Task: inverse folding
């Protein structure tokens, strides 16, 4: 086992440390290693059926297509950019029009077999309805994503994603499909997580990066080396963080485990991306069920999905029955990390830079709060790793100095030089001036689930 302060060596295998099973490390090899041409052909064929279904059964999309001048003519996948984008507000509007299921429900109410709710972080809560087939589809996509992280059937998985009301609850079906041993705890239940880790109940831990960092801090603060004897793998999801080097390295060193990330979008699929043990970004795992596009942040023109491209992800459901979405603006800004991988998967890999809503502009330069976290995290252990930007008004432009709140552990309340050093580091690395406020852990707020990367105060 590594020393307490050491970090893991980079992964060079498509399996996790200690995994000597002889299962294929790709869940659906034919599909996940298909050429781009094959993936496109498969998607285009399924889209034909889906387009007809939308026109016939979704009053919401039938109207939108008509308004966009599409009429009855069929629009192939190659021309999908002719179709209008769908926003979260549009979907909410469809529900409000005819509650409780709305005008975009394409199956009879009796065929709806599961309902999740949205968190309402970008407005009032709403619902996401699934048919039996949709439940299976989500579980299948999730199985590819989690299997891609290296979780195999011999693993024992401690999961802190609640059963509901959010779509992250779907992970429970995924773990059952993968055949692992599941050890569920409620989100934020620190005592049970620490008990489970210390007693060696699990070799894998699923958590938001905020919660994983909090657990890592707790373990580092304890008097004895109380790291889990069995833990080899932490999978983070729900927010960016697991892919930010300072955060990832800290969790890896403190927990003695490899960190990989998953990501999903509530209205599309809860686990749509999974990072393999090579740790070079999350693979798209929705081939055949979801059609991804990348669009320019300003013009929303289509971009080529190629290494280095930065844009907003857009998703279209190819097979979804109950509440399909077309060209849904997911709000996630991503950087494409590659289009091939030593693991053999042919889908693109990406890192999420943050929510479009969290992005702001300082003197003409785009800034993502995740970039601030990357700088702040390097000041550990004088900081805990959490930080947030304070925004005033609705505008996207922020005048420097940018107000940033940085969480500090209880034993560093009077670290007088820290704020100035953080301001200098942000200035030199991110080229804008900031004004740092140090906030003790007890006052920063909820650590068990997601941390909002920006808050608006008047
Ligand atoms: Zn890979």
Result:
């Amino acid at each position: 086992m590594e020393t307490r302060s050491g970090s893991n060596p980079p992964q060079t295998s498509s399996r996790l440390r200690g995994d000597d099973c002889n299962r294929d490390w790709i869940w659906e090899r034919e599909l996940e290693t298909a050429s781009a041409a094959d993936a496109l052909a498969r998607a285009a064929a399924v889209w034909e059926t889906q387009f007809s279904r939308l026109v016939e059964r979704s009053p919401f999309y039938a109207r939108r297509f008509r308004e966009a001048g599409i009429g009855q003519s069929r629009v192939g996948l190659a021309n999908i950019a002719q179709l209008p984008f769908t926003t979260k507000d549009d979907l909410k509007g469809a529900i409000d029009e005819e509650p409780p299921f709305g005008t975009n429900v394409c199956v009879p109410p009796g065929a709806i077999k599961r309902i999740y709710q949205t968190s309402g972080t970008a407005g009032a809560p709403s619902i996401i309805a699934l048919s039996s087939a949709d439940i299976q589809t989500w579980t299948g996509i999730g199985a590819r994503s989690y299997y891609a992280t290296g979780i195999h059937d011999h693993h024992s998985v401690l999961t802190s994603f609640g059963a509901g009301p959010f779509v992250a609850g779907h992970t429970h079906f995924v773990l059952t499909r993968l055949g692992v041993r599941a050890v569920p705890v409620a989100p934020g239940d620190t005592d049970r997580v620490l008990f489970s880790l210390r007693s060696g109940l699990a070799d894998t831990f699923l958590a938001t990066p905020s919660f994983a960092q909090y657990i890592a801090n707790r373990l580092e603060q304890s008097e004895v080396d109380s790291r889990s004897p069995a833990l080899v793998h932490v999978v983070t999801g729900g927010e960016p963080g697991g892919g930010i080097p300072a955060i990832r390295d800290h969790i890896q060193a403190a927990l003695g485990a490899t960190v990989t990330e998953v990501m999903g979008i509530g209205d599309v699929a809860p686990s749509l991306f999974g990072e393999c043990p090579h740790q070079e970004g999350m693979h798209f795992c929705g081939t055949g069920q979801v059609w991804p596009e990348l669009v320019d942040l300003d013009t929303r023109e289509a971009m080529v999905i190629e290494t280095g491209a930065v844009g907003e992800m857009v998703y279209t459901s190819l097979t979804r029955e109950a509440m399909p979405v077309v060209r849904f603006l997911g709000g996630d800004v991503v950087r494409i990390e590659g289009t091939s991988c030593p693991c053999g998967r042919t889908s693109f890999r990406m890192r999420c830079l943050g929510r479009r809503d969290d992005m702001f502009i300082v003197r003409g330069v785009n800034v993502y709060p995740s970039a601030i976290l990357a700088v702040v995290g390097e000041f550990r252990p004088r900081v805990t790793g959490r930080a947030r930007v304070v925004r005033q008004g609705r505008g996207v432009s922020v005048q420097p100095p940018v107000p940033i709140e940085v969480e500090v552990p209880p034993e560093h309340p009077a670290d007088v030089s820290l704020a100035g050093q953080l301001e200098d580091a942000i200035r030199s690395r991110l080229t804008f001036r900031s004004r740092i406020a140090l906030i003790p852990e007890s006052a920063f707020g909820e650590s068990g689930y997601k941390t909002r990367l920006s808050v608006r105060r008047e």
User: Anything to note?
Assistant: The longest strand covers residues 328-338. Residues 1-9 have pLDDT under 50 and may be disordered.
